[in-house]
Specification:
Belongs to the deoxyhypusine synthase family. The protein has about 300 residues and is α/β, with parallel strands linked by helices. The protein has helices at about 15-20, 30-45, 65-70, 85-95, 105-110, 125-145, 155-165, 175-180, 195-200, 215-225, 235-245, 295-305, and strands at about 50-55, 80, 100, 115, 120-125, 155, 185, 210, 225-235, 250-260, 280-290. The two termini are about 30 Å apart.
Length: about 300
């Protein structure tokens, strides 16, 4: 089968561009097309629940609405993410913003109260609002937990659900997850501004976060699912939590990952998904696609093309 040269025309749809990618071989464009087709198949399969993981600054990088759309339309069952993305979702819910085009002199940025994430920026004033608002939410949750049988103990998943119930922003990932019964897990939650404020709050309040408690609920979700597909944006802890949660059932049935990391170091972030089969984190015969590139550029393209084919 020959490689077709990519043909571009004016006003073509994203799905049409993806068809051009599909015929171009198995290099970058071909992998992107395979990932988009796999995403369609996963979403259209009524027997498949989809676990999505996000590592890296994907909310600051512009994917907040896309993740929200997946949740709102019940296209994912579980979201596993870093504490940083939780923090930045809430920062926007509390009126903060992420900025661009402010320059790269980091000492001057520091003096001006601005933090930099590559070429995305945040203001310390927004984090001050975040800190005051999240403490109010912790106080509400703490009073609620103190009054029930849990003796002040709460799992991360339930904590995030309770936070989502108290957010008014209709675009908040946490709020949408609460409204649409999508479970959010953040195994590295403490390693974030959210986690720092939580630690400070627990110094003089009775609120104990039980990370192990998440595994009871997550394992139930795995065993209740006929098939599981995975969307993994970036690597790290969220990717491993997604794959490892399926270990006891023989692994995921389908999966796509987008990563910038390389496999030579042996890190999980750069490992091709085929490697997961050796650990029973992906099943024999599972449909797997690894795309090397920037998730903030490639996943919107993959999802936009898939929308024309989703039932």
């Amino acid at each position: 089968m020959k490689v077709n040269q990519i043909s571009i025309k004016k006003d073509m749809k994203v799905s049409e561009l993806m068809e051009e990618f599909k015929g171009s071989g198995v290099l970058g464009a071909g992998r992107v097309a395979r990932a988009s087709n796999l995403l369609v198949n996963m979403i259209n399969d009524p027997d498949m629940d989809i676990f999505m993981s996000m590592a890296g600054p994907l909310v600051p990088g512009g994917l907040r609405y896309i993740v929200g759309d997946l949740i709102r339309n019940k296209r994912i069952k579980v979201l596993i993410t870093s504490g940083a993305n939780i923090t930045h979702d809430l920062l926007e819910s509390f009126g903060g913003r992420h900025y661009r085009d402010l320059g790269f002199n980091d000492e001057e940025l520091n003096d001006a109260g601005i933090g930099r994430i590559s070429d995305v920026y945040t203001q310390s004033e927004d984090f001050e609002v975040f800190e005051s608002e999240i403490i109010k939410i912790f106080e509400t949750i703490s009073k609620k937990i103190d009054n029930d049988k849990d003796n002040g103990i709460i799992s991360i998943q339930r904590l995030l659900k309770e936070v989502g119930s108290l957010i008014e922003d209709e675009n908040s990932i946490l709020r949408l997850a609460y409204e649409n019964d999508v479970s959010i897990f953040a195994p590295g939650l403490i390693d974030s501004m959210f986690g720092l404020q939580l630690w400070m709050f627990t110094q003089d309040h009775k609120l104990v976060v039980d990370a192990v408690g998440d595994m009871h609920y997550l394992s139930d979700l795995v065993f209740e699912s006929d098939k599981i597909g995975a969307i993994m944006l970036g690597g790290g802890l969220p990717k491993h939590y997604t794959l490892a949660s399926n270990l006891l059932k023989g692994g995921i049935d389908s999966g796509l990952q987008i990563t910038m990391d390389r496999p030579e170091t042996g890190s999980l972030s750069g490992a091709p998904l085929e490697e997961a089969k050796s650990w029973s984190k992906a099943k024999h015969g599972s449909n797997l696609v690894t795309v090397v590139g920037d998730a903030t550029a490639l996943f919107p393209l993959i999802y936009a093309a898939a929308l024309d084919k989703i039932d």
